[in-house]
Amino acid sequence: MGSAVLKEQTLPSAPNHAPVDYADVQGILRYGFAQMTEAVYLLLNVRDAEAARTWLAQAPVSTALERSPAPSTALQVAFTRQGLEALEVPAHVISGFSPEFLSGIAGDANRSRRLGDVGANAPSAWEWGAPGRVPHLVAMLFAEPGMLDGWMRSVRGAWFQQGFIEIGRLNTSNLGGREHFGFIDGISQPLPDWNRTRTVTVNGSQLQYGNLVCLGEFLLGYPNEYNRYTDRPLLDASDPASEELPDAEDEPGKKDLGKNGSYAVIRQLRQDVRAFWQYVDEATRAVHETGFVVAEAMVGRELEGGAPLAPLCAHSIAGVGASGSASKREQDVRLNQFDYTADADGTHCPFGAHIRRGNPRTADLPGNPSGIVSELIHQLGFGETNLHEDLAASVRFHRILRRGREYGPGLSPGEAMQPAPPGDPERGLHFIALNANIERQFEFAQNAWIAGTKFDGLTEESDPLLGNRAPVEGDPFTNSFSMPQAGKLRRRILEMPQFTTMRGGAYFFLPGIRALKYLAEAKGA
Amino acid sequence: MMPQSNVLVIAPLRMEREAELRQLLGSMNREPGTADPRNALVPFAAFPQLHFARFVILADRTVGDLKKAYGVAAPDYPLSLAFIADFDGTADAFRADLARRAGAGLARIFSCCRDFAPGAHIAADIAAWMKARETPAATLYGTWRGRTVLQVHEENTLRLALQSHLQAKANSLREKRPAEVHAELRAFTQAEMRAGRLTLTPPPPTPLGWWLRNAAHFVFVPLLLLILTPLLILYLPFFLFQLRSREKSDPEIAPRVEACYEAELARIEDFDVTNQFTAMGSVKPGLFRRCTLAYLLWLLNWTTRHIYVRGQLARVGTIHFARWVFLNHKRRLLFASNYDGSLETYMDDFINKVGWGLNLVFSNGVGYPTTRWLILDGSKDEQKFKYFLRRHELPTNVWYKAYPGLTAFDLKRNTLIREGIERSSLSETELKQWVALF
């Protein structure tokens, strides 16, 4: 409160704006490796810790350095808690990681309830990642067309064979930038503040939705949106094993094992594309519409070009159209320069649309208050003009970087109307989210926004694409979807089946390069 | 309008009966921590006036913080059982009803407490025993003044019936103007009420005594403040000096909660869309903090009693009932609430929407993340604040909610739907907003 008049405290960290050492960051945090259209994720268990460490110490893990010409292959590695244990990382070091990482995505029934991993999504039915089947690490290999097999052979040398057992292999497919339901994938991403120019204060409110997000929301070791450093393992500088690690910015004399690293959430989501289009076809007719109107309402974007259903705003949004080539910037503006203030009643984009749930694009205070009095009125909970206005606030604390890839053969909407032939292959998404605080970012968004049947004042519905339709005691059903209409009664479609099913998942630590070297050497204690 | 009321009974346990009590309380549950509404001991669902209830053993694990932070040895507080209930009507009526219809079960539970020895008139004795051990809340919040459990159920049934009707008539209503939709639904409701399939009980008359007391309180607090203002202004510089010097030296105690305790708390969460939260801790030693806290809670209570009475506590619309209660001569504070969503969403709402308000109150508690000027920082040290809350949280042994599946927002929307249906004419704007509630 009172951000305008009260002097803000700044953190006592001298090198607050030291530039990011891209050579210490795994590339996937900065790049999606879009040119490398082939990828495979190897789920590995450590068989021989010594050999595994030897391989890790030499592994050609790609960094976030900009290279010219751009590399044609990439390798990224990330570890579960079980993996750190298998590599014999000291227990007191491991205990410095976040509680949810230590517990794991399926390690706790409460977590499964919150994430919607119940019923058909329950870990007991997963192919991988349930307790007892958590891989130690994932090696993610990316390559330009035709190069993946060769890259895999070159990555997997003798030490690899001796060090690891491959317990699973997540293949991916390239659908030309679209996901299986046919929509353009990954259009909207937060822009991490790589240049460390964004200033947030501990007590100040952000009155405008912005897409430029503090680096510390994605990389450990930097200030986050609260202008604080997210907890991560800090080592005593006197520990000789920690010598090569970066210094902790916030704690002099400490070495930072988290620095330049992140947490990766991987969720394998099977998509029932036939069920989706067959249901949508029926629902479209039920509401007397044609074409893709209902499918687009469920997603919140147009099928063809990806334009949002919500109107673009006239003013620019920080972090939108702010990076890349001129045409990229122009496209980003066209696709992402919007929030929902001009669609407060949800008549353009339904409240429950997938992209509105995935990012409600709200600032810290609703109603765009200007001036200290107006801000105060809003802070005290008055001056609301709309019932929904303040239900999902402050999205800046819940953003994630998405780096998922599709798997299985594509299916057009037309093909999807046909019944499944025998042996119809599985298709879906290997969802990957990168964030510094799994509980506050991925888990919050998944729980409150995606899986939540009460998101934004709605009831009896969850995310149209991802919801598990699990019953909620006291509610008649959770499988509806409502579409507000301007000046008329809402449209509501019912009995929506579950379109996506969890097949596996895990929480990984994606270390910085120097942290990786530490893990490859830190034995025992 | 029937005002809500509440009881909070706190009674020390017989140490040798603790295990038995835990087992007994556990036997009342359907899910870990969530009551079976028809359990044999206290069949909560049999009390149509009851909104929320809980039994919680107040095992404060943080008593030692006083010594750690200030070198002050904490008194040896006895382990206590708390029973909390929020209901419609008066406390006397509720207590009597509860003791009459759940006397045997309550006697089994309360017999684990010290000095519980009912005589021949068991129901009357239990009610009297409870009353003697009640502690009033310093601040009490209820999301909607005067909305009864009956009203909650009736309004939800109404909404579901209207939704079904809208669905059945979707084709004929889809191009209709809001006024026509409203007229259609009004006619439908009236027909359903005549057929006895829907009931919308009119609110009972507001008890005169309650109304007078409430009006007096409404006037009295600001009046007293007005009278005290010159003194408060004179005292302000001293207050700020005292405050800042303490804020600069008060130690923080907010380590991460041990995984096993975290798991014990999480085990009982997220079965319903609403969760319970119970926490306690010591007030910082000395008169300054005790008086500051008492004063702030007194002010806050005025706002929750007169201002925040329709669905929101400042910006937070997810709390059904909450209370701040002083214990042990204002040496300790108990906080108990019923909130929608997961604990993570609750804490984030707290921090991002009313962080300053949390700081006002909780910064007077031992170990709270450092604040400035009473409202700044503190909870904005997000992780520390979350550890602090979690560390002070207690597992609630038995928790009951009368309307599973419904959030405070659901209740608000249902009430707005009902208010609209009962009015024959609405303005164009009102009609638009009303139709958008479906």
Secondary structure layout plus pairing:
The complex is a heterodimer of chains A (525) and B (438).
Chain A: E1 38-46, H1 49-58, E2 73-79, H2 81-86, H3 91-94, H4 99-103, H5 109-115, E3 137-143, H6 148-155, H7 158-163, E4 164-171, E5 191-192, E6 212-213, E7 234-236, E8 254-256, E9 262-271, H8 273-286, H9 293-299, H10 326-336, H11 354-358, H12 372-379, E10 401-402, E11 405-407, H13 413-416, E12 428-435, H14 439-451, E13 481-485, E14 488-493, E15 500-510, H15 513-521
Parallel strand pairs in A: 5-6
Antiparallel strand pairs in A: 1-3, 1-4, 2-3, 7-8, 9-12, 9-15, 10-12, 11-12, 13-14
Helix pairs in contact in A: 1-15
Chain B: E1 4-12, H1 18-26, E2 29-31, E3 34-35, E4 50-58, H2 65-70, E5 80-88, H3 91-110, H4 122-132, E6 139-142, H5 149-168, H6 170-173, H7 178-194, H8 208-249, H9 259-266, E7 274-282, H10 287-306, E8 319-327, E9 332-340, H11 343-362, E10 371-372, E11 376-377, H12 382-392, E12 398-401, H13 408-421, H14 428-435
What does this structure look like?
The complex is a heterodimer of chains A (525) and B (438). Chain A is an alpha+beta fold. Chain A folds into 2 domains: 19-189 and 231-266 and 509-521, no CATH class; 272-397 and 412-421 and 444-504, no CATH class. Chain A contains 15 helices and 15 strands. In chain A, the strands form 5 sheets. In chain A, strands 9, 10, 11, 12 and 15 form a 5-stranded antiparallel beta sheet that branches. In chain A, a hairpin with a 2-residue loop joins strand 13 and strand 14 (488-493). In chain A, helix 1 packs antiparallel against helix 15. Chain B is α+β, with helices and mostly antiparallel strands and 438 residues long. Chain B has 2 domains: 4-146 and 206-401, no CATH class; 149-202 and 410-435, no CATH class. Helices cover 48% and strands 16% of the residues of chain B. Chain B has helices spanning 18-26, 65-70, 91-110, 122-132, 149-168, 170-173, 178-194, 208-249, 259-266, 287-306, 343-362, 382-392, 408-421, 428-435, and strands at 4-12, 29-31, 34-35, 50-58, 80-88, 139-142, 274-282, 319-327, 332-340, 371-372, 376-377, 398-401. Chain B has a 4-stranded antiparallel beta sheet. The mean pLDDT of chain B is 96. Classes of the chains: A alpha+beta (525), B alpha+beta (438). At the A-B interface, helix 4, helix 5, helix 14 and strand 14 of A face helix 5, helix 6, helix 9, helix 11 and strand 11 of B.
